[in-house]
């Protein structure tokens, strides 16, 4: 910048910085509207079979001092232990405790075995999988993970995700009580009595009007925001 007056330059930079701050605040507010529109519509993240990337569990794998049992069992016995855990969420939790377990989980998850059904040989997954995935399969995994998340993230039992409490759209008082959902409770009742984020409460309070043209218009505008930014 030739011949720039440092004071003028500084003033323009300050104006630009103010515009940036204003823009960021507006973006966050708009993001909050988009999140709310999704909750009014009842859109929640859905369960996907957990995948631990190979590049994570293959790298720097080492024996854990506290792993005295499972890794020392013969492979077929260890596989039975995995198979007999009550839910896929329990298997995921075990897989996350060490890289060797993660590798075993990823292997067993894809493993197929042949069984006889009515005298016909049928190929089925070795690990039991739910026939249909419901909302609570994801919640079953999430309730086991609070210690894995940074302290500012809190599980909302209603919208089925960890919420960053430092985001402006998330701030405010939560409803529900974590003491009501001890011991990994993740059923329909848990979504009613468990902790629920502020946006879920606002959406709940609009349950009577969620099918109206006004609600559709709000949703349409929110979608537009997503496309714009
Ligand atoms: Zn929520």
Description:
With 229 residues, this protein is mainly α. The mean pLDDT is 87. The chain is built from nine helices and four strands; from the N terminus they run αααααββαββααα. The chain has helices at 6-41, 54-57, 75-84, 88-95, 99-110, 135-142, 188-193, 198-204, 213-228, and strands at 112-117, 120-125, 153-156, 161-164. The protein has a two-stranded antiparallel sheet. Strands 3-4 form a two-stranded antiparallel sheet. The longest helix is centred in the first third of the chain and has 36 residues, at 6-41. It has two domains: 54-125; 134-229, no CATH class. The radius of gyration is 24 Å and the shape is extended. Bound molecules: zinc ion.
Summarize the structure.
It contains 9 helices and 4 strands. The chain has 229 residues and is mainly α. Helix 4 runs parallel beside helix 6.
Notable characteristics:
mainly alpha; two-stranded antiparallel sheet; 47% helix; extended; 2 domains; 229 residues; binds zinc ion
Low-confidence sequence ranges: none
Give the SSE order as H and E letters. Answer: HHHHHEEHEEHHH
Strand order of the largest sheet: 1-2
The number of helical runs is 9
């Amino acid at each position: 910048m030739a011949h720039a007056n440092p004071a003028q330059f500084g003033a323009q930079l300050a104006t630009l910085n103010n515009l940036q701050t204003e823009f960021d605040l507006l973006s966050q507010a708009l993001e909050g509207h988009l999140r709310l529109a999704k909750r009014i519509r009842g859109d929640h993240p859905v369960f996907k079979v957990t995948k631990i990337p190979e590049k994570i569990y293959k790298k720097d794998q080492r024996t854990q001092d506290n792993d005295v049992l499972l890794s020392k069992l013969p492979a077929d016995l260890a596989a039975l232990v995995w198979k007999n855990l009550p839910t896929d969420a329990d298997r995921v939790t075990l897989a996350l405790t060490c890289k060797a377990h993660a590798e075993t989980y990823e292997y067993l998850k894809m493993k197929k075995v042949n069984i006889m059904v009515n005298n016909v040989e049928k190929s089925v997954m070795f690990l039991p999988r739910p026939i249909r995935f419901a909302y609570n399969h994801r919640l079953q995994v999430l309730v086991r993970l609070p210690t894995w998340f940074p302290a500012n993230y809190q599980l909302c039992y209603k919208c089925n995700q960890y919420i960053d409490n430092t985001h402006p759209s998330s701030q405010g008082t939560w409803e529900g009580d974590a003491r009501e959902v001890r011991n990994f409770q993740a059923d329909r009742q848990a979504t009613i009595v468990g902790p629920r984020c502020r946006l879920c409460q606002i959406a709940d309070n609009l349950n009577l009007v969620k099918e109206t043209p006004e609600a559709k218009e709000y949703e349409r505008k929110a979608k537009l925001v997503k496309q714009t930014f």
